[in-house]
């Protein structure tokens, strides 16, 4: 979102998401990233961070935020995009903890994630068509793009069958912000 909005930023990694030290997460007591350090303090969580980035944007930007989605369909697409990302991360953390794939909670999370992706694939085109035409960007598009590319990056499941999601991510990837910020592991990373 920083690249989308033309805000200068510097990237610092959380070296191990299993760390129990809040100082490793810029003081976030939830022991989670992302965290943004701006001139106005530390900001926890994706949406508040994106809002703070927008306050630092060099010019006026027309951004569609979650509260602008006044109809059920785009609102549900936004909610399930965020929930799918959260479920994916929980599955990755469960894998790292050595939880077996036969664990009842893992089975449910996996099914829930596939259900959500099916819903997103079926409804993304209508949700996007409902967004205001005159926009520079939207939280929905940025988060959905990040979700699909992250699923592929972590090879958690095969996304090739989700045709509408694939077409959307390919379109969004034409943007300079997307091309400038592909996912990658850092050299010291243990893959977490
Ligand atoms: N609602 C938060 C969720 C943050 C979150 O779950 N972050 C994950 C990584 S993307 C995390 O730090 N997980 C660590 C853990 O689950 O222990 C947001 O949108 O930023």
Describe the structure.
It is built from seven helices and four strands. It has 192 residues and is mainly α. The strands form two sheets. The protein has a two-stranded antiparallel ribbon with strand order 1-2. Strands 3-4 form a two-stranded parallel sheet. The protein is globular. The two termini are 22 Å apart. The mean pLDDT is 94. Bound molecules: glutathione.
- Strand tally is 4
- Classify the helix fraction into a percent range: 40-55%
Tell me the overall shape: globular
SSE class: mainly alpha
Distance between the termini: 22 Å
Radius of gyration: 17 Å
Number of helical stretches of at least 4 residues:
7
Main sheet specs: 2 strands, antiparallel
Which ions, cofactors or small ligands are bound in this entry? glutathione
Mean pLDDT: 94
In what range is the share of β-strand residues? 5-15%
H/E order of the elements? HEEHEHHEHHH
Give the strand order of the largest sheet, numbering strands 1, 2, ... along the chain. Answer: 1-2
- Low-confidence residue ranges: none
